[in-house]
Design goal:
globular, alpha/beta, 2 domains, ATP-binding, 8 strands, nucleotide-binding, eight-stranded mixed sheet, P-loop_NTPase, ATP hydrolysis activity, ParA/MinD_ATPase, Rossmann fold
C-alpha cells in the first residue's frame, strides 16, 4: 500500500481529535453519530467549556514517536568485532579462535575515534589550520589531518594551501609530476563555475596523494609572480571546491590580517591551532585568539568567538632548547583556558624531514594522535552542523 495518501484519506487516517467534528458532507439524509453527554457536563455554560486547539490533520505526520529509533540506536558494532591488536589479538590467533577475549579499552577508543571521523554532515565542512608564527607545524598538521580524514572518512578530502603568496604544502606533499598551482586553477576558474563542470577536470589542478587518499591545492610556486591571493580569489575558489569536496582543510599563511586569511575565517567551521609549548609560540596563538574575540565584539558577530571556544590546539614538538616542565604547564594552562581541547602530537621523524610527508612511514603513536585530533575536530563539526543546519533532522549521527 502506498503511504503517499491524498487529502481525504490522509485526514481519515489521522489521529482522532478530542473535539467533536462535523462531517464534511452533512446532508439531511446522512446518518448522525450520537454522543452521550453526562448530565453534569450538560449544565455547564458553553463559554466555560475547554476548547481544544484546532488541528490541521494534513500536517500531522503519519508516524510519530521514536520508539523504533531507540531500539536501533546502536550505531556500530565496535565492541562486537574481534580484537585486532594487543595481547587479546595474539591470544585469539594463538588459540585459533577458541579463546576470544574482549577488545581492549585502547582498541575500543581507537575504533570510536575512527567512527567519529566517518560522520557525514549536511554540507561541505571547512577546517582552518591557523597560527601567525611560522615553524610550528601548520603545514605538517594540515597534511596529517588530510591523511587521517582521507584514509578513514571515505569521503573527498582536500588540503588547500591558502598562503597569499608562496606556501610550502607543495614541498611537503607528492607532486606526481604535476606543476599546477592555485593560480593555474584561477586562470580557468570560470569554466568550473558552471553546472557542467566535472570533478575529473578539477583534479588536473590538484595533486592527489595516492594511498594517503586526499588531494592538495598548492599555493603559488612562481617567484616571478607579483600577485597575491585576495578575498575575491579565495571566495571564488571556495565556492568551486565546495561542490566537489566534503572536507576542506585550509593551511594558512602567517598574516592574520591578509584578505584571504580573513575570507577563510568567515567560512570556517572548525579552527585548529598548532603550537609548541614555547613562550613565543603560545603568545602568537593567544594574540590570534584575542584578535578573533575582538572581531566578534567589534562587529557583533559571535562566529569568531565561537570558533575560538570550539578550537582544537595541536601541541607539536619543536626543536631547540627544552622548556622546563613548570613553564610548559603554565603555557598549557593559558591555552586551555581559551579553547576546547589540547592534544599532543608526539615527535615522529617522518614528519620532520622538511620534505615529502608519506603517511605510510609515520609511526603509530603519531598516527593515533592525529586520529584523536580528527575525532575531536569531527565532534566540533557535528556541533556546528547541528547548530546551523537548515532544518531539524532525526538522523542518528
Amino acid at each position: 500500500m502506498s503511504t503517499n495518501w491524498q487529502g481525504s484519506e490522509r485526514k481519515s487516517r489521522a489521529p482522532i481529535s478530542l473535539t467533536d467534528q462535523q462531517p464534511e458532507d452533512s446532508t439531511p439524509g446522512s446518518a448522525a453519530v450520537i454522543h452521550a453527554v453526562p448530565v453534569a457536563q450538560a449544565t455547564v455554560e458553553p463559554q466555560q467549556q475547554p476548547v481544544a486547539a484546532a488541528v490541521d490533520h494534513s500536517e500531522v505526520p503519519l508516524v510519530s514517536g521514536r520508539r523504533s529509533a531507540t531500539v536501533l540506536r546502536k550505531e556500530n558494532v565496535n565492541d562486537q568485532l574481534p580484537p585486532a591488536t594487543g595481547w587479546q589479538a595474539f591470544l585469539r590467533a594463538a588459540s585459533l579462535g577458541l579463546i576470544s577475549p574482549k577488545v581492549g579499552a585502547a582498541e575500543l577508543a581507537r575504533r570510536a575515534d575512527l567512527s567519529a571521523i566517518q560522520r557525514v554532515y549536511s554540507r561541505p565542512m571547512q577546517i582552518m589550520v591557523a597560527q601567525p608564527l611560522g615553524g610550528v607545524g601548520k603545514t605538517m598538521c594540515s597534511i596529517g589531518l588530510g591523511s587521517t580524514f582521507g584514509i578513514h572518512s571515505g569521503q573527498q578530502t582536500l588540503v588547500w594551501d591558502n598562503n597569499e603568496m608562496m606556501g610550502t604544502a607543495g614541498v611537503r606533499t607528492n607532486a606526481n609530476d604535476s606543476i599546477s598551482t592555485v593560480w593555474d586553477l584561477l586562470n580557468v576558474l570560470e569554466s568550473f563555475e558552471t553546472v557542467t563542470a566535472r570533478k575529473g577536470e578539477l583534479s588536473y589542478y590538484t595533486r592527489h596523494q595516492g594511498n594517503n587518499q586526499f588531494s592538495v591545492l598548492v599555493a603559488d610556486e612562481d617567484a616571478d609572480r607579483m600577485k597575491s591571493i585576495g578575498a575575491d580569489e579565495f571566495n571564488r575558489i571556495h565556492t568551486v571546491v565546495s561542490r566537489f569536496y566534503d572536507t576542506i582543510i585550509v593551511d594558512t599563511g602567517n598574516n592574520t590580517r591578509s584578505a584571504n586569511w580573513l575570507a577563510s575565517i568567515e567560512v570556517t567551521d572548525q579552527l585548529v591551532i598548532p603550537t609548541t609549548l614555547k613562550r613565543n609560540s603560545v603568545v602568537s596563538a593567544l594574540r590570534m585568539i584575542e584578535q578573533l574575540e575582538s572581531m566578534s565584539e567589534r562587529i557583533g558577530n559571535p562566529h569568531y568567538k565561537d570558533l575560538v571556544a570550539n578550537a582544537v590546539v595541536l601541541v607539536t614538538q619543536g626543536g631547540g632548547a627544552k622548556v622546563s616542565a613548570a613553564e610548559q604547564a603554565e603555557l598549557r594552562e593559558n591555552l586551555a583556558s581559551a579553547v576546547r581541547i589540547l592534544i599532543d602530537i608526539p615527535y615522529d621523524g617522518a614528519l620532520d624531514t622538511g620534505s615529502i610527508i608519506d603517511w605510510q612511514l609515520v609511526a603509530d603513536p603519531a598516527r593515533r594522535a592525529f586520529e584523536r585530533a580528527s575525532a575531536e575536530i569531527a565532534a566540533g563539526l557535528l556541533a556546528t552542523d547541528l547548530k546551523h543546519a537548515p532544518s531539524a533532522t532525526t538522523t542518528n549521527r
